[in-house]
Amino acid sequence: MAEGDENLELRFRVFDGTDICHGTYQSSVTIATLKQRLLSEWPQDKSLVPKSVDDMKVIHAGKVLENGKTLAESGVHTTDLPGVITMHVVVQPPIADRKTDKKEKQGLCSCTIL
């Protein structure tokens, strides 16, 4: 382990409230590496499954964490929060799906004049 490297116990909460990838990570791990693991272990029974790491955003303490930074550079420390640290994962729907949803919503509106 590198000097100043600490072990962090993390879990990642997805949109429906379930936790995935609970484990111990070194503070030198990059956010992109975390996203790769999340993608590989993502439960396939979810209604929304990311296709790439670009479809996910990892949020800690109200901040979206950048892919190129490590956990330490992102300000994730055990001294700040003792115990298991929960991070939230948001999945961005594919662009084609968002355009389709918008068209469908426009078609659902109707007015009745009496």
TrEMBL record:
SUPFAM superfamilies the record matches: Ubiquitin-like
Domain Ubiquitin-like: 8-76
Organism: Erythranthe guttata
Entry-linked Gene3D superfamilies: Phosphatidylinositol 3-kinase Catalytic Subunit, Chain A, domain 1 (3.10.20.90)
Domain of life, per lineage: Eukaryota
Name of the protein in its database record: Ubiquitin-like domain-containing protein
